[in-house]
Amino acid sequence: AKGERPLGEIRTYSATPIDYLRAPKSSVLWRSRMLPPVPERTLFPGLAPTTLGVMGLTPPLGAMQLAYAAGLLLSFDGSRGLNGITYPYLHRWLAPVRGLRSPARFAAIVGLALSILAGFGARRVLGWCHSPSHRRVVFAGLVALVLVGAWPALALQPVWLEPPPIYRGLKGVPGVVLAEFPILPDETGNIPFMYFSLWHWTPMVNGYSGFIPASYAEL
Fold this sequence. Notes:
Blueprint: H1 7-12, H2 47-56, H3 63-79, H4 87-93, H5 107-127, H6 132-150, H7 191-200, H8 214-218
């Protein structure tokens, strides 16, 4: 229904290996130590999961580890999009793929595979412990490493507890299509209008999505 994504847009949101060294600005530990974030391509998974994942891939390896390692490699290459090996073929052969905007989001599957492999790594580390008390201490240390690496600095802001009173007349009125003004060139400005729509559920001209039709920009 929406058609194909422009190649330039897909290429913009195709990751490169260095994007896995970009940390989000919300990370207390890594935001000043890693490369700066880039939209859709800030993919650093964290040091603790990566280290434990590597340990989970050290021999001897079972079939499960090999399967998740293969999934990790395939999804990593998929996140590279048009920069990778497999995605250009998928884009050429499969029409639905040509409608996808951000191949870098394959990094979510990278993270899932890495979390399983990190579990294997944690089990290996705990296996080196010689007593239950030693194992509990090491386990607590692993949990602490993960928590410190994932600790967020969130800039919270107060929001409306209810919409402005102008919306009260819309609720339950059939056949209404709502246009909010001003219609902003930056569609993220529509987010408050979408939040208010939770109270009136009226169809809207304004919106915010990964797909923005040319007719919206013309309007």
